[in-house]
Amino acid sequence: QVNSKQGGSPCKEKQVVLLSPLGRIKISGCETGVHEIKLPKMSLLPSGAEPSVACEVCEGAAEMPEPLQQCTAWLRAYFCEPETTGSLPVPAFHHPLLQRDSFTRQVLWTLLNDVKFGEAVSYKQLADLAGNSRAARAVGGAMRSNPIPIIIPCHRVIRSSGDTGNYGGGHLMKEWLLSHEKLQKEKLAR
After folding, report:
1. What are phi and psi of 176, to 5 degrees?
2. Which BP terms from GO are recorded (predicted)?
């Protein structure tokens, strides 16, 4: 049990493991919202960025609180039927970073709401969108501390040079996510 981030009653934290094309994604949360998504470390790119059918909860499926059900449904759609993510609810988040009013929170919300599937922005562009054009470095810090990767799509933030830049899940995973989105977007455009 973790204490609720506002110092109220403790959360009953549950954990779920989603088997994805990227490996085992660990998701934790409570009735109030998702606490964190932990991506696996990758040393090899999975073959192809085709939608995968093999995307299911392999641990913790019993008694899953609603935010975790929404989170796993959203991630399954992201990997298997990306065109449907826009119609799915984004789960509630219950991480201290997303509760406090801060530039980091503002950047993460801006990224979630304004940078769509298959798009990419530079750190500087995201700083502009979040209301502080000189805060590109702070945007980098916000990306590093993102507790909800993929749903809050920090992989879509790249360097102004076009270089992909760093990523918590590693460079290979960032490249896979970007190419997965690009391929799916092209398919939908056909």
Report:
1. -65, -45
2. DNA repair; methylation
Check residue 156 and give its pLDDT.
97
Domain with CATH 1.10.10.10 in the chain: 96-189
Residue 50 has pLDDT above 70, yes or no: no
pTM of the model: 0.87
Q: What is the 3-state secondary structure (H, E, C) of 60-91?
A: CCCCCCHHHHHHHHHHHHHHHCHHHHHHCCCC
Residue 58 annotated to the active site: no
3-state helix, strand, coil in the chain (%, to 5): 40, 15, 45
Exactly one of 30, 55, 71, 154 is catalytic; name it: 154
Residue 47 tokens read as 């073959």
